[in-house]
Structure formats: structure tokens, C-alpha cells
Design goal:
By secondary structure, the chain is of the alpha+beta class. The chain is built from six helices and 14 strands. Strands 2-1-12-13 form a four-stranded antiparallel β-sheet, with no helix packed on it. It has a four-stranded antiparallel β-sheet with strand order 6-5-9-10, with helices on one face.
Length: about 210
């Protein structure tokens, strides 16, 4: 990535100490710290004095769509979330919310109701890593594809958004890895006015 003519260096694993490290834990390997919104924002900010552009990780939000109704299950279901396996009360959507929020201190994720389904929010922009052997609808996430087990194997990672801000117009171009790689990161080439933000897409399955 090149911002205002300055090549941005690579994001590093050490840039993000919040996201679950699937590589280090040998499960949920789709969660790579160096690919997170937090790490990418840090990489961009290392060159802010040269580019005049600052980056921040926006809250990472994962949620069902408004038409995906919660489906109750009287049997508690297991959910892998950011390194924790949670026994979820799936009798009501409030039961799901309370079960997940009892682990918010460990996962960095807060659950709330969205329509008739569920919304998960990582306020700091960390990755949200999900897996369950249950039906996603039992968790209020029926419109989403989640990992198929609750032990982290094959868990799906949802990445956050990176916002770019500047007092002046700035230009964003692909670097040596090309336009395709830039777009895979969720950015697009162009010149952005001082009142507009470049935005990294807020949800990716990897």
C-alpha cells in the first residue's frame, strides 16, 4: 500500500496483542494477528508523520440480518469465541446474550440483540473468531457461516474495519503486491477528500 507516495510497511503480529492468535494456539488458524484491523492501523500509523494520514481500528461488528430469526433450542449449545468455549443458554435470545457476555472480559466481545437475532461487538476492532457445532440460528446468527466445531478447529474469523483520516486530501495506491492484494485488504485506490474516510471492509471470512 502506498499513501501519498509513501510505501507502507508490513503489519506485524506484535502490532496486535488483543486478537486471538490462532497460529500460536494451533487452532482457529484463520485468526492472524498481523491481518487484523488493529495491526493494519498500526502499520499505517508508523508512517503518519510522512503521509499526514492517521488510521484507527473501528469497532468490529458481526450480526445477523434483520430477517434471520433466532431459533430456540432447549439444549445448551457450545460456542467457540476468541479462544473461549462457552456453554450458551439457547432457550431465549436473552439467554444467548447473557451467556456470551459472561465471558466478555476474556473475549473482548459484547453481545446484544439485533432485530430478532444477535449482534457481537469488539469495541477495539479485534478479530471476532467463531465456531460452533450447533445451528447458527440457535445463536441468533442464522444468516452467517460459522466454523463447524466448538473447539476452534476451522473457526471463521471476521475482521474489523480500518478508518483513514487526514486534514487534507490524500491518495491511496497499491504497492508492490498489486491492486488485487490491496482490494483483498478491503481498500480501494483513489484520492479521498479531507472530509471522507478510506474504509477497510468490516467483515471477511478467512
Amino acid at each position: 500500500m502506498v499513501i501519498n507516495g509513501v510505501q507502507i510497511g508490513a503489519a506485524l503480529t506484535t502490532d496486535d496483542t488483543a486478537s486471538y492468535d490462532g497460529t500460536a494456539n494451533s487452532n482457529a488458524t484463520s485468526s492472524v494477528r498481523a491481518a487484523s484491523a488493529i495491526a493494519i492501523a498500526s502499520a499505517i500509523n508508523r508512517s503518519s508523520s510522512q503521509t499526514g494520514v492517521k488510521a484507527s481500528a473501528a469497532p468490529n461488528i458481526v450480526r445477523s440480518n434483520l430477517t434471520a430469526a433466532f431459533s430456540a433450542n432447549t439444549t445448551a449449545q457450545a460456542l467457540f469465541l476468541n479462544g473461549e468455549t462457552i456453554t450458551v443458554n439457547t432457550t431465549t435470545i436473552n439467554g444467548v446474550i447473557d451467556s456470551i457476555n459472561s465471558y466478555s472480559g476474556q473475549t473482548g466481545v459484547v453481545a446484544s440483540q439485533w432485530g430478532t437475532g444477535l449482534q457481537l461487538t469488539a469495541q477495539d476492532g479485534r478479530n471476532i473468531v467463531l465456531g460452533t457445532s450447533a445451528s447458527a440460528a440457535n445463536l441468533g446468527l442464522g444468516c452467517l457461516t460459522l466454523g463447524a466445531t466448538s473447539d476452534g478447529t476451522g473457526a471463521v474469523t471476521f475482521l474489523g474495519a480500518v478508518q483513514l483520516q487526514s486534514d487534507n486530501a490524500f491518495t491511496l495506491k497499491s504497492g508492490s503486491n498489486g491492486v488485487t492484494n490491496l482490494e483483498l485488504l478491503g481498500f480501494r485506490q483513489g484520492t479521498f477528500g479531507a472530509s471522507k474516510n478510506g474504509l477497510k471492509i468490516n467483515q471477511v471470512d478467512v
